[in-house]
Amino acid sequence: MAARHSIVQDNFKLILARLLLFAIALMESAHAASPGVLSGARVAFEIQDVATIPGISLSRPPRLNGLISPPDNSHRLFVVDMDGAILIVQDGVLLRQPFLDLARHRAPWFMKDALEQGLISMAFHPDFARAGRPGSGKFYTFSTEQSSDAPVTFPARPGLPAPTHYDVVCEWSIDASDPSKADVRSRRELLRIPHPLEDHVGGQLAFNPNAQANDPEYGLLYVSVGDGGNTIHLGKLVDEWRTAQNKLLPLGKILRINPLPSGSKPYSVPNENPFASDPKTLPEIWAYGLRNPQRISWDTGGDHVMLITDLGQKQFEEINIGHSGGNYGWSEREGFSVVDHADEYHRQAITQQESALPFIAPALAYGRSVGIAITGGYVSRRTDIPELNGKYLFGDIASGKIFATDVAMLKEGAQPPFYELPVFHHGKVASMRDVVGNDRVDLRFGTDDLGYIYIMSKREGTIRRIVRAVSVDAPIAPVERPLER
User: Fold this and answer.
1) Quick count: other Cβ atoms within 10 Å of Cβ 382?
2) Is the N or C terminus of the chain more exposed, i.e. has fewer CB atoms within 10 Å?
């Protein structure tokens, strides 16, 4: 009887122990999956060198401008060099042969000499790896070109100068015999946008990663386009031509199209586009009133919000939440002020009467004391870096400062706190200027199919990945934003 009682006790203890371990595992899992807290955290974020890209230009380092993975589970990294090349890093090794070399295959039309010109971005069709689908093996590029005999999609409007170049969106296919090469004969031009000045050019190409195959959003290509250039450099008024508010121009907009051919047309306009049936508006427009929306992305968790970073004139840098048909106010608004077209340094308060105008306020904005040119940016959803889980990462192009804010707190006009992330590289805390070895970093972000976030520069060719948080002495504090309204 005693022996039997002992066995029952032992079994009971074993069950309790297992229940305790299960409870601990659940708690750890919940902790890992919940958004981390940055305020007061004594951590820095280690960036690991992944690969170094040689420049295709002999006169300067590579101008790395983006990094993505194709939706084929190959975990390859496709890296965009603005000087004209797309290169592949596979298993940490750079393939010697470029995937695509526009500087070679589009000479003499390809343009890369101005600061913002060149091969700007690329995107893979979500059906890229689905054999038999119309988008199978397809990808898209956004680049700048000189005039050619190709038809212009949106003719220049009266009052604008002759184009200095064209922003061009093209579709390509992979080589049927080699998945590491593009078929240069497959080039098919979709959009050719006349651009009056050499800056504020085309920005991001992207498909919504949250859209499923049966969703009307699936397979629709978003195209962000700058407002045509900073007219103040010509001795004119701020935004002399008011292009971003002109809905008959593609400039200062986010466009949305189905990039696959439709009969004799190179693409089609989705019926769900907000202005598809408005004769006074280009049907391709999805949102407008933006100055230089270089980067767009979506949160793959939470509310799946679309995030737009818009570079400011002299007052505010902005993060905006993407809304179909949204008007973001440029150049009547910059951040939380009214634009004085005669004086870019003059900040004018928004009056009660003006606040009733239908402009969407930024979710987060900061002045030039924090940074001079914003760049995005992705929401981290990796649970092995819990401090960044649910955080939108963005930064300042020039200084290379990397910032993060809680994506769930990004609401129109909300102005949530954000934090500068300390960087840990080669065993010590360092600024990105130190890491890159240049006073101007020209910061860029990328992401892969595993959710890692990558850091790049247009000043040197090393790709780096954020891999973990390490303990440091100094706590992280919110960035101070004086006079932000």
Assistant:
1) 16
2) N
